[in-house]
Amino acid sequence: MLAIAALIYFNFIVPSEDLPTVSINKVADYVKAGVVKKIAVSDDDLTVWLKEGQQPAKVRSRKEQSIGLTETLRNLGVTQEELASVAEIVQERPSLLANLVPVLVNLLPLLGLGFILLFMLRQAQSGNNQALSFGKSRARLFAGDKPTVTFQDVAGVDEAKQELLEVVEFLREPAKFTTLGARIPKGVLLMGAPGTGKTLLARAVAGEAGVPFFSISGSEFVEMFVGVGASRVRDLFDQAKRNSPCIVFVDEIDAVGRHRGAGLGGSHDEREQTLNQILVEMDGFDTDTKVIVIAATNRPDILDPALLRPGRFDRRVVLDRPDMNGRKAILEVHVRGKPLAEDVDLMELARQTPGFSGADIENLVNEAAILAARRNKKAINMEELQEAVERVIAGPERKSRLISEEEKNIIAHHEAGHALVMRHLPKADPVHKVSIVSRGMALGYTMHLPEDDRYLQGRTKFEDELAGLLAGRAAEELVFGDVTTGASSDLEQATKLARAMITQYGMSELLGPRTFGQKEELIFLGREIAEQRDYSEEVARQIDTEVKRLVDTAYERAMKILKEHRAKLEELAKRLIEVETLEGPELEALLV
C-alpha cells in the first residue's frame, strides 16, 4: 500500500515535467535582475518563468515554510520596485488529493496495524465457530421429493426389498398398521457380503419413502477427542427428531458398534461412549419418536449384543449373493439404457457368473460397454459381455507377455489336462472355455461353470473337483516326465479343499462325522482369523494322513483318465497352441 501511495503521489501530484531546481536565493537574484516574468506558488513549492531569451526558461524552487513569498524575497534584499517588475505572481491552491496523499502515507502504518488486528480477530472467530461445530453431526440430509434411486433400480434381493417396503409403507400410511396395534420398527440392520447392495437398498429407501433421509458413515462419529462421537450422535438424532418422520442410515456401523470391552481403555474408550449414546438414542427413555434407523455392515459377528436386540434393531435382513434368476434381474437393471446387440442372452450370462455380487455384475456390464467403445461398435455384443466376465474373474488379457515355445507347450498340455479330466468326471462342472492367453497372474486358465446354482455339495462332487484341480500337474508329469511351478495355485486349492472335507464337513471314514478345530472367521468376508486346536497330536497326524490319501487318490484318478485319452490330450494341446483359445462346439468336439 505504501508503494502504491508513493506511486500515485509522484506520478499524479508531483509535476512530471523535468525542470532545473534552484535555491530561493537564486530566485531573488532573478527578481533583482528583472528577468522574472511569472511566479506560481503552490504551498511551499515555486515555479518561476523567466523572460524570453533567458536560459533556462523555467525553473523550480522552494521557499521557507509558514512565510509568504513576498516576505521571503524582501528578507533576501528584493525591493518593492524590483517585485513590481514581476508581471504575475499566482497563488495556486493545492488539490485535495495532494493534501490527502501525505496524510495517507502517514496513516499507512496505523492502517496496516488495524488490518492485521482485524485479520487476527476474524481468524479467532472462525476458530470459535469450528470449535462450536466440532461436535455437530456430519450427516447429509436428502429431501424425499427428488428420488435418484428407487426400488426399480434394485433387483435380486426380493425378500430384503419386501422388508424395507414395509418400512416405507409404515412411514407413508402409519394408520394402516397402528389400527392393528403394530408399532413402527426402530431399526433395520442390513447384513451381507461386500457388493450385495446394502447401500443401494438404503438409497432406494430414501427415494421411495418421501421423507427426510439422513446418511452418515459409522467412522464419522469417531474422533481422537473423547466425547465428540457421543455429541455427534446426540446432534444427529436431534436433527432427525426435528424432521420426523424420517430415516437415518448409518453405513458401516461396525466402525462404532463393535462389542464393548474389546478395545483398549475399557468403558472410557471414545468408541464405546459413542456406542452407549447410540443405544440410548435408539431405545432410551425418550421413545416416542418416528425415527427409523437403517444400518449396514458386513461384520455382524462383532456388533454389541445390546445394539442387536429387538427394540433397537427389530429386523435383521441378510443380503446374500444372488442366484441365477437374481443375476439375470440385476443384469436387466444395469443394461437399461445401453444399446445391446440381438445376440445378447442375459440368461446365459447369468449362468456364466455364479457367485457374482450385484457390484460385480455392474462392473461386468461397464467393462463390456468400455470394450465395445474401444472397438468402435454401436452396440454391446455377447462377445464383449463374455470377455468382460473373464476380465472380472481373472483380469485383462496379457498378450504382450513373451512366452517361449517350450513354455507355451507346457501350458497347453497343463490346461488341456484340466479340460479333459473334467470332461470325463461325472460330477465335475462342464468346461466352458480353455485358453493359454495370460490373464492377470495366470499363464492360462480353464473356465468350468456349473449348470445351476448349488447350495449343497456332496463328497463325490468334491472328489471329482480334486481330480480336476490336479489334472494339470498330472498332464505335465505324463507328457514331459517333469513338473513345474505352474500348478502351485491348483495344489493350494486342492489341499484346502481336502482339509476342509476332513475337518469341517466330516467326510472322512477314518475320523468319522465330526469337525476339528474351532475357527474364528469373518462371516461375510470369507477370511479366517484364527483356529483353536481341540484335538490331539495323534488326531492331527490322522488328519494329515487323510488329506494325503484324498489328494493322492484324486491325482491317480486324473493320471488314469489322461493315460486312457492320451491321444485326445495331444490333439487338444496342439490345437490350443495354434488358436490359443477354445470354446463352444469346437472345444466339445475335441473333448468327446
State the major sheet: 6 strands, mixed
Main structural class: alpha/beta
Q: Mean pLDDT, nearest integer? A: 81
Helical residue percent? 40-55%
Query: What is the CA-atom radius of gyration, in angstroms?
Result: 44 Å
How far is the first residue's CA from the last residue's CA?
Answer: 92 Å
Counting DSSP E segments of at least 2 residues, the number of strands comes to 15
**Reading side by side through the largest sheet, how are the strands ordered?**
5-7-8-9-6-10
Beta-strand content: 5-15%
Shape estimate: elongated
Low-confidence stretches: 12-16, 126-132, 264-268
Total helical elements: 21
Secondary structure: elements and pairs:
Layout lengths: L1 H12 L10 H10 L2 E7 L2 E6 L7 E5 L6 H7 L4 H5 L3 E5 L3 H38 L6 E3 L15 H15 L1 H5 L8 E6 L5 H12 L3 E5 L10 H15 L3 E6 L18 H14 L7 E7 L7 H4 L6 E5 L4 H11 L11 H7 L5 H17 L7 H13 L10 H19 L7 E5 L9 E4 L10 H22 L7 H16 L14 E5 L4 E6 L4 H28 L1 H14 L1 E3 H8 L1
Parallel strand pairs: 1-4, 6-9, 6-10, 7-8, 8-9
Antiparallel strand pairs: 1-2, 2-3, 5-7, 11-12, 11-15, 13-14
Helix pairs in contact: 1-5, 6-8, 9-10, 12-13, 12-14, 14-15, 16-17, 16-20, 17-18, 17-19, 18-19
Characterise this structure.
- The protein is of the alpha/beta class.
- Helices cover 49% and strands 13% of the residues.
- The protein is built from 21 helices and 15 strands.
- The chain has helices spanning 2-13, 24-33, 69-75, 80-84, 96-133, 158-172, 174-178, 198-209, 228-242, 270-283, 305-308, 324-334, 346-352, 358-374, 382-394, 405-423, 459-480, 488-503, 537-564, 566-579, 584-591; strands at 36-42, 45-50, 58-62, 88-92, 140-142, 187-192, 213-217, 246-251, 291-297, 315-319, 431-435, 445-448, 518-522, 527-532, 581-583.
- A six-stranded mixed β-sheet has the order 5-7-8-9-6-10.
- A hairpin with a 4-residue loop joins strand 13 and strand 14.
- It starts with a helix and ends with a helix.
- Mean pLDDT is 81; it is low at 12-16, 126-132 and 264-268.
